[in-house]
Amino acid sequence: MVQPAPLQFLPLPTSISPSFWHRLTSLKLHHLGLDDKSVPIKGCYSLGRTVHDKLTGDSVGISGSLELDEGSFDLDVGDGTSAPSPHRDHFVLRGVLRNYNTIEEFKRADKAKLLSDLGDQIWSAIRHPSPETTLADLNPFLMITFADLKKYRYCYWCAIPALVQKPGWEIVEGWRKCDEPALEQIDASVALLSADGVTAPLHAFATFWARTPPEERTLVFNDPSSHPTALGWSVRNALTFLAHSPSPLDPPVHRLHIISRREGKTLSCVVRLPESVEEALTVRPAVVGWEKNDAGKLGPRMADLAPLMDPTRLADQAVDLNLQLMRWRILPSLDLDKIKKTRCLLLGAGTLGCYVARTLMAWGVRKMTLVDSSTVSFSNPVRQPLFEFEDSLEGGKPKAAAAAAALKRIYPGVDATGVSLSVPMPGHPIPPSSLESVRADVIKLDQLFEEHDVVYLLMDSRESRWLPTVMGAAKEKLVINVALGFDTFLAMRHGLPPSSDAPILAPSPGSPFRGKLGCYYCNDVVAPQDSLTDRTLDQMCTVTRPGIAAIASATAVELMVS
C-alpha cells in the first residue's frame, strides 16, 4: 500500500513591469507626497502551463506569477475592489502597497508584524465570514517599497500570506491527467462563472455541498503552478477554510477531490486530513509568505530603472523632481502645470537673458524665445553662462541662436528658439535705407508678442525697452523688466490694463490708482532719449558687480511665478 504523501505548494513569485514603477513614481510625486498610508492595488496571475521544447523534445513547465503593472493601481471607485481581469485565464488578487519615505523606515519596518496582521485578517475571514466575504478575501497580498526618485531605484518586498495547516493535507490518490471530455466541461463552466467576475460568498460552500456525498466533493481552482506534484500557493488558504469553516458540514470536509486547472495539462488528486482538527479551531495557525530574493533568501529586492530609461525621458522627469518636492511641505498650492505651459519671450540674450533663461528652465518652463541682434564677444562667456569661448571665435556667433542652442544642450526637452532682431528705439533716427528692415523687425516683434504669454525686458539700454513696453500694454501681456546698476538692481512687473482676462492689482485699497500698476516709464516727463551716443568705455560696457545679475534674474522670474 502506497503511503500518503504530504500535499506541497509552490510559492507564487512576483513579476513587476517597469510601468508599475513609473505609475508609483507619479503617485508618490503628485498625490501621496509624505503620506505613507497603505494604497490598495491589484495583481493578476495566469495558469501554469507546459510547453514542448523543440530543441530537446522535453516538456517544460512554466509557472504563473503575480504580475503588477501600471494597471495595478486602477481599482473600482465604489468599494475599492478590483475589477475582473480583462484577459481570459488571468485572475485577480487584491492587495495593499505601503511606500516608506526613507530607506531607514523601510528597513525598520516590522515585517513579522505586517505579515501577522494580514494573517489575522485572513483567519478572521475564515472563522467569522460576513455575507460578503469571498475566496478573494483569503488571498490578499502585501507589498512594501521605498522609491528613490532621484536615482530611479526601488527597493521592495512582497508577501502572499498563507496559513500553515497542521496537521497538513495528504495525497491519498496520486496525480493523474484529466481526460478531454471532463476538461472541456470544466473549461466551459469556468468561462461561464467567470464572465461577470462575480465570486460566491464563503458561506455558500455549506449550502452547495449540503447534500453532496463526501467522496464526491470536488474543488476546482485556477492553478498558477506547473510543478507535477505541487499545487499553486493560492489554494492554501482555501483548504484551511474548508478544514476550519464554522459553517455546519456533515460530515466535515476531511477528504477532497482537487482539480488543478492548468493550461494544456489539467491534473487532479484526492487529499485528506489525517486526523480531526476540532481542537485547533480557536487558534490561528502560523502564517508564512514573504518572497525570497534573487539569492534564494528571505529579503527585499531592488529594481533599478535608470539603465532602462531613455536619457531624454529620464532628464524630463528629473527636471521636475525638485519642483514637485516643493509641493509636499512648502508650497502645496504651487501650480506647476501652469508654469510649465507659460510661453516666455526674452528680449535680450546678454547677461540678464542668460540668467533668466536658466532660471526659467529650472522653474519648469519649456517654451522660450530669445531675441538679440548682437554677437558673442570675448568678454561675454565669463559673465554670461550660456556662452563658451568657442562662441566668440571668428567674429562671434549670434547671441540669440547660441543661447538657444546652449539651452537645448543643457536640457533637450526645452523648446528654445533664437531670433536675431533689432528693436527700434526712440531718439535713434532710422536712415531711409533701413526702413524696410526696421519694418520687418517690428512685424516680427509683433508676431512674437502674439505667440507668447510673458515678456522679459532684458536689454542693455533704457530706450530699447520703450517700444516693447508699449506693445505689452496694448496686447495685455505680462511684462517683467529687469535693469542693473553697480550697487542696485531693478526687477518689476508692469501693470496690465483693465481686462476680463488680466488680473488687476491695486497698490492699496484707498489709492486713486486702484486697478493700475505702473511701468518703467511712468515717472518720465519726456520720452526716452538717446543714451548710447557720446559715451566713454566704462559707460559703453555694463559695469555691475559680478553676481548681481543672477540675483536680479531670479527675483524677476519669481515675480512671474508668484
From TrEMBL:
Ubiquitin-like modifier-activating enzyme Atg7 N-terminal domain sequence ranges: 7-309
Gene3D superfamilies: NAD(P)-binding Rossmann-like Domain (3.40.50.720), Ubiquitin-like modifier-activating enzyme ATG7 C-terminal domain (3.40.140.100), Ubiquitin-like modifier-activating enzyme ATG7 N-terminal domain (3.40.140.70)
Superkingdom classification of source: Eukaryota
MF terms in GO: Atg12 activating enzyme activity; Atg8 activating enzyme activity
Domain THIF-type NAD/FAD binding fold: 324-560
Assigned GO CC terms: phagophore assembly site
GO biological process terms held by the UniProt record: autophagosome assembly; autophagy of mitochondrion; cellular response to nitrogen starvation; piecemeal microautophagy of the nucleus; protein modification by small protein conjugation
Protein name as annotated: Ubiquitin-like modifier-activating enzyme ATG7
Annotated organism of origin: Rhodotorula diobovata
